[in-house]
Design brief:
- The protein is of the alpha/beta class.
- It is built from 13 helices and 8 strands.
- Strands 1-8-7-6-5-4-3-2 form an 8-stranded parallel β-sheet.
Length: 354
């Protein structure tokens, strides 16, 4: 088996082998702090040439909370958040596309806009990364593919375990559309994240591979699952080890965990990944602790706490990529980056001909 020849971000494997790379923090947390109303989500407050110009004023459903729509209606908001994370020291910036699938956008009556959302989001992240990149410090756009609100292996009806509200082919099609637009918009790598149903993730990975075959592109892939409770399993029932063996066929550049748990509770599962995924880089971007509605960010941990905990991960030699998920801010990312800037990256078996 030979090393993968990437058509984009070809230098990223060498960077991860040399030092810990920093992923950005939460997009949703930053948007929530702005307290945008329905009118702002439809475009009020921005008159730039890349805005919506009243396009969604008559849309029949409420769109407040549809953060992915902001890439079209309020690109200034998304652009500013990207640049704040880059200024804080992020090497990798996620596109504002966690819910930008036609499946997820059905909730807002905006499924036909999914491709445009992904394209515009990738273009915004690309422009921000290009603005901050230097010859000795490249910045990378991570095209984010979220789990969708529907699951291929979990019943939505507690009284009917066999019921399903989506199938593999529907997921494959929506993820292919998303992948195509993200790459066209300038993504350097693809991040299949917050995986709580492995079958959904496998549909995304199938669609990505299909796109690679059709396009001739080959981008690095990061797969990040989420352990939902102290059982150490993702929601569809797999242990972290089983999850790794279910997705390793796609030869991801990195495997990791994000979201649900804060760093303290996530640690044993990152340790487990470190043991079983010896030929793969490890990523970790936890929530800022547990939810706390009294906090400004909605979560417990301050930047000092989160950065101290993730410094311990680095000191143990567990990780190659660190960042933040729900509740984290540019201040969290800056603190994380400073806390690990002199720490060596996790060592692994990664020969040139692997």
């Amino acid at each position: 088996m030979h090393a993968i020849e990437y058509t984009r971000a070809a230098e990223l494997p060498a960077i991860l082998a040399r030092r810990i790379a920093i992923l950005d923090g939460a997009m949703g947390t930053m948007i929530q702090r702005l307290k945008l109303g329905e009118a702002q989500y439809r475009g009020q407050g921005y008159t730039g040439p890349d805005g919506a110009d009243g396009r969604f004023q008559a849309h029949a459903r409420d769109v407040k909370g549809n953060n992915e729509l902001l890439s079209i209606t309020r690109p200034d908001v998304v652009r500013d958040i990207h640049e704040r994370y880059l200024a804080a020291g992020a090497d990798l910036i996620e596109t504002n596309t966690f819910g930008a699938t036609s499946v997820a956008q059905e909730d807002y009556g905006m499924a036909p806009l999914a491709r445009e959302m992904n394209l515009r989001s990738a273009q915004l992240a690309r422009a921000a990364c290009d603005r901050y990149a230097t010859p000795d410090r490249p910045r990378f756009v991570a095209g984010a593919l979220g789990p969708t609100p529907k699951t291929a292996s979990i019943s939505p009806d507690v009284n009917d375990p066999g019921a399903r509200n989506i199938d593999f082919e529907q997921l494959r099609a929506t993820y292919y559309e998303q992948t195509e637009a993200l790459v066209e918009g300038g993504a350097d790598l693809l991040l299949v994240e917050t995986v709580f149903d492995t079958l959904n993730a496998k549909a995304a990975l199938f669609a990505i591979d299909e796109y690679f075959e059709h396009s001739g592109e080959r981008l690095p892939i990061i797969v990040s699952g989420t352990v939902t409770d102290a059982s150490g399993r993702i929601l569809s029932g797999q242990t972290v080890t089983a999850f790794w063996h279910s997705v390793r066929h796609c030869r991801p550049l990195a495997i990791g965990l994000n979201c649900a748990l804060g760093a303290t509770l996530m640690r044993p599962y990152i340790q487990e990944l470190n043991r079983v995924a010896q030929d793969c880089f490890i990523s970790c971007y936890p929530n800022a602790g547990l939810p706390n509605p009294m906090s400004d960010t909605g979560f417990d941990e301050t930047p000092e706490i989160t950065s101290r905990l993730l410094h311990e991960f680095a000191a143990e030699g567990l990780v190659n990529i660190l960042g933040g998920c729900c509740g984290t801010t540019p201040e969290h990312i800056r603190a994380i980056a400073l806390s690990v800037e002199k720490m060596p990256a996790r060592k692994m078996f990664y020969p040139a001909d692997a």
